[in-house]
Amino acid sequence: MFDIVGVPESDLLGGFSDAELIDAARASARVENAACARKLAVMAEIFTRRTGLPAGDRESWWVDPEASVTAELAAAGRITAGLASAQAHRGVALRDRLPKVNALFLDGVISELLVRTIIWRTYLITDPAVMAAVDAELAAEISTWGAQSAAKTELAIDALVERHDPDGVRRRKHTATTPCVEFGSPIDEPGFTTIWARIYAGDAAAAEKLIDEMAHSVCPDDPRTLDDRRTQAYTALLTGFTTLACHCGSDTCQAATNPRPHRDTTIYILTDHTPDGQHRGSSATPAEENVQPDRKPPKPAYIFGAGLTPTPLLEGLCQDAKYREIVHPGASGPEPRYTPSRALAAFVRCRDLTCRFPGCDQPATLADIDHTVPYPVGPTHPSNLKCLCRFHHLLKTFWIGATGWRDRQYPDGTIVWTAPTGHTYTTYPGSRLLFPTLCQPTGTLWTGDPPETIPSDRRDEKMPRRRNTRAHNRLRTIDAERKHNREQRARERPARTQNTRPPPIEWHEPDYGDDPPPF
Q1: Cα-Cα-Cα-Cα dihedral sign, residues 8, 13, 16, 19
Q2: What is the pLDDT of residues 317-344, one digit of tens each?
Q3: 64 near 470, Cβ under 8 Å?
Q4: DSSP run (H or E) holding 284
Q5: Residue 273 DSSP one-character state
Q6: Beta strand pairing status for 368-371 and 385-388?
C-alpha cells in the first residue's frame, strides 16, 4: 500500500487557498503516478505468468497466450484489448528493462506520459548491459530536466541513448510523405463520418476535376447545394459511377436518367406487437376526430458500426434499400439446424447490436452467431445464440478448461462471463436501452445449469495459425530498424568527414603610408 498524504477530500476544497490547491494538485498527481505504476506492475506479473507457461504450439495460434491474457486484463480494467496489451507490455518493460526508472515511477516522482516516452525511445536497445547503463543514467538525470516540453524530453532521451547505442536511437519517420486514408473522427456529428486522405498530388487533381465536373453536370433546377452534389459525386465514384443523377424531378432532363449509386442497405423495422384492433387509425372513432398531431420527435435509427443516426438523415439510405421486419420470436421452439434462419439471425443481430464479449464493440453485422452451449447439445434458439466477433469467438471456442472462459446466457439476452480466475462479467444486449422490446425473454431452455459439453480431441487443429509468433515479429522489427539506423549513419559519416572549410584567404599588411590614424 502507499500513502495519499496531501490529497484532501473533494468536499474540503472550498476552504483551501490557491497555494494549497496547487499543493493538493501536485500531491494528487504523485499519488496518481504511483497508483498507475502499481497497476502496470500487476498487469506485468499476470502477463508474464500466463505467457511464460509451456504453451506448445499455442504460440502460433491466431489467438495465442498473449491474446488470451490480454482479454482478461481488458475485461478487468474495462478497457480495449489493444490498450490492455500496451499497458501490460509497458509494465514488463519497466520491470525487466528499466527497474531504476520504475522505482521513480512507483514513488510517484515521474508521470505515466514520461514513462511511455522513455519506454518508446529505448525500445531498440537489445544489449542488456547497455540497457542497464541507460536505465541508471536516465534515473539519475530525470530530476535535472525540470519542467521541459515533450520535444525537449525526447531530445534528452535520444541524446543519452546515442551515447550508449547509436543504432538504438529511434529516428523520426517521414509520415507526411506516406499516402493513407482514414475513416471517422471523435468529433463527427451523429449520422456523419469524416473521411480524411493523403494521396499523390496528381491523383488529387484528377479526382477534384472529375468531382467538380460531376457536380456541375446536373441541370440548374437540381435542388441540392454544390457541396451536396460534390459529396454525392464522391460517393458515386466510390461505387463505380462517373456520372451524377439530377434530382430536378423533370421527365425531360437528360441527367435525371443517369445511374444512381446502389447501396446494399437493409433496413430492419421493429414490429408493433399491439393487437390489430388497437393500431392507430383502426379505432371506431370517426377519422376526423381520430387524427391527432404527433408531437413526439421521431426516434433515431441505429446504424451498425456507426451508432445512432437522426431520422432525417436516413433519406439517402432509404433509396433502393431492402426492408425486413424483425419479429420477436417469443417462446417459439428451436430451429432444426446448426445455421439459424435469416429471420432468427437478423433478430439476434438486432438484439445484440455488437459483439457480446466484455468491452468489445465490433458491429453485429461483422460478427459470428455463436451457440452459447455448443450445438447440438445447445439448440439453435434465440436463448442460446449471441453475436461474437471472430476473435472472441475463437477465444471462447479454443481456450477452454482452466485457462478458458465460460459463459451463461439468459432468455432476455443477458450473458454472464466467467474468466479463468473465476471473476464474472455481465454484458447486456445493445438494444436494451434503444429497443427494449427486443430484450423480452425468448423462452427458458434449462431449469438448472446448462449441460456440459465434451470438446473434440482434434479441436486445436481448427485454430487459425500465425505465420510467425509475436516474439519473432518484434525481434524482426527491432533488427530492421537498427539496420536502417546503421545504414543511415554509414551514409552520413562520409559527409561529416569531408573538408568543408573554405580555402584560406591570402592576407597582406595594409599600407597606411604617412597618414595619421583616424581616431
Answers
A1: positive
A2: 676 678 888 889 988 899 999 999 999 9
A3: yes
A4: none
A5: -
A6: antiparallel
- Residues 6+ away with beta carbon under 8 Å from 358: 74, 75, 78, 417, 425, 427
Question: Using N-to-C axis directions, what is the helix angle for 81-96 and 112-121, rounded to 10°?
Answer: 70
CB atoms within 10 A of CB 385: 27
Cell of 79: 478497457
Q: What are the cell numbers at 53?
A: 507457461
Alpha-carbon distance of 459 to 462, in angstroms, equals 6
Bridge pairing between strands 180-183 and 368-371: unpaired
Q: Rounded to an integer, what distance in angstroms lies between the CA atom of residue 308 and that of residue 314?
A: 11
CA angle 306, 307, 313 (to 5 degrees): 80
DSSP 116-159: HHHHHHTTT---HHHHHHHHHHHHHHHHHH-S--HHHHHHHHHH
Helix axis angle, 99-106 to 18-51, nearest 10°: 140
CA distance 88 to 45: 9
Name the helix (H) or strand (E) containing 180.
strand 180-183
- Please report which helix (H) or strand (E) contains residue 269, including its range: strand 266-270
Q: DSSP states of 203-257 as a string?
A: HHHHHHHHHHHHHTSS-TT--S-HHHHHHHHHHHHHTT-------S--TT-GGGG
Average pLDDT rounded to a whole number, residues 185-189: 80
Are 360 and 354 a contacting pair, CB within 8 Å?
Answer: yes
* Cβ(415)–Cβ(372) below 8 Å: yes
Element at 268 (helix H, strand E): strand 266-270
What is the sign of the dihedral through the CA atoms of 391, 392, 394 and 399? positive
Q: pLDDT (tens digit, 9 = 90+) per residue, 120-133?
A: 999 999 999 999 99
Helices 65-77 and 81-96: crossing angle in degrees, nearest 10, is 110
Written as nine digits, the cell of 148 is 521541459
Q: What stretch of H or E contains 197?
A: strand 195-198
pLDDT (mean) for 99-111: 94
Q: How far apart are CA 75 and CA 359, in angstroms?
A: 6
Q: How far apart are the first and last CA of the chain?
A: 79
pTM: 0.78
CA–CA gap between residue 386 and residue 410 (Å, rounded): 11
Instruction: Give the HSE-up count for residue 260: Cα atoms under 13 Å, Cβ half-sphere.
Output: 14
Q: Choose among 128, 49, 125: nearest CA to 91.
A: 49
